[in-house]
C-alpha cells in the first residue's frame, strides 16, 4: 500500500503546464497514482493564481483557479483510491508559485 503524500511543490517556470503526478514523483519516487482524498492548496505567499486542469490549458484562465489561500478538495464517493493525479495539470503565469499537496490513500 502506498503511503499518504504531503509535500510543498514549486512551479519553477511560468506559462508551463506541469503534470501534477510528475511533480509529485520528483519529491517522492514511490508516490501513488490514485488517492482516496486529494487536497491542493495555494499558500498566501503566492503572488499569482494557479490553474488546475487538463494538459490542453493554453493560459491561466483555462483551468479551475486556485487563488492564494484557496484550496480544492477531492474525495472519493465510495472510500476507494479512485482520484487519479496522472490526468491533472497545473499552470501559473508567474514562476516560483507553490502548491501544498495532500493525498490520502486507503
Summarize the structure in short:
This protein has one helix at residues 20-27; strands at 5-11, 18-19, 34-35, 37-41, 50-53, 64-66, 71-75, 83-84, 89-92, 97-104. The chain is mainly β. The longest helix is centred in the first third of the chain and has 8 residues, at 20-27.
Main attributes of the structure:
106 residues; mainly beta; Jelly Rolls
Q: What is this structure's SSE topology?
A:
Layout: E1 5-11, E2 18-19, H1 20-27, E3 34-35, E4 37-41, E5 50-53, E6 64-66, E7 71-75, E8 83-84, E9 89-92, E10 97-104
Antiparallel strand pairs: 1-10, 2-9, 3-8, 4-7, 4-10, 5-6, 5-9
Could you explain the architecture of this structure?
The structure is a single chain. The protein is mainly beta. It has one domain: Jelly Rolls, CATH 2.60.120. The protein contains one helix and ten strands, in the order ββαββββββββ. It has one helix spanning 20-27; strands spanning 5-11, 18-19, 34-35, 37-41, 50-53, 64-66, 71-75, 83-84, 89-92, 97-104. A four-stranded antiparallel beta sheet has the order 1-10-4-7, covered by helices on one side. The longest helix has 8 residues, at 20-27. The protein is globular.
Amino acid at each position: 500500500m502506498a503511503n499518504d503524500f504531503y509535500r510543498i511543490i514549486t512551479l519553477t517556470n511560468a506559462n508551463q503546464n506541469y503534470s501534477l503526478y510528475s511533480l509529485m514523483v520528483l519529491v517522492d519516487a514511490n508516490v501513488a497514482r490514485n488517492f482516496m482524498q486529494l487536497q491542493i492548496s495555494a499558500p498566501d505567499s503566492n503572488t499569482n493564481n494557479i490553474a488546475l486542469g487538463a494538459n490542453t490549458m493554453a493560459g491561466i484562465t483555462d483551468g479551475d483557479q486556485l487563488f492564494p489561500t484557496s484550496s480544492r478538495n477531492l474525495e472519493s464517493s465510495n472510500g476507494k483510491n479512485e482520484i487519479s493525479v496522472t490526468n491533472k495539470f497545473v499552470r501559473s503565469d508567474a514562476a516560483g508559485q507553490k502548491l501544498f499537496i495532500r493525498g490520502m490513500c486507503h
